[in-house]
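Working notes for the structural subgroup meeting. M.R. asked for a predicted model of this chain before we commit to crystallization trials. I am recording the input and output together here so anyone reviewing the notebook later can reproduce the run.

Input as submitted:
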Amino acid sequence: MTKDNRYRQTIELLFDFLYDDSETDPVKIKEFLAQEGYDYEELANEGMQFVNDLIRRTRSKLAREKKTSILESLANLGKGMAQESRDTLFKKLQELTAGEPELQLAFHKLETLSDDDLRTILSDIESLRIRRRNNNRAEMSGDEPQS
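Returned structure, recorded in token form:
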């Protein structure tokens, strides 16, 4: 019998054993595995390593996707503002700073700035809003906030 066939047969026996309602005693399960030549502790550790690896890879994948999404959002910020008129830039700044007293105070002399400076400020505010929104989502889902 090949190693793969023996392994497959042992797994089948283990499943039969585990799904037999009368055989749920942990001691009997350990004895069964020992009879089949398996170390219970080693199998349990391998199982935990497998699960932890899946969790780590999933978190890593989600973090990469989140980072990509944030970077794409940030990259698209300036595209829409490139051709905006000065009046439109002022309106957008007023909308973004509404309800944010610290921003309103910081940007109270906007008329002295160039259009490019206004675009930069708008882009920075939007960038901060995107990051804040993503951090709020992360906190609600129990993840670590991105900086």
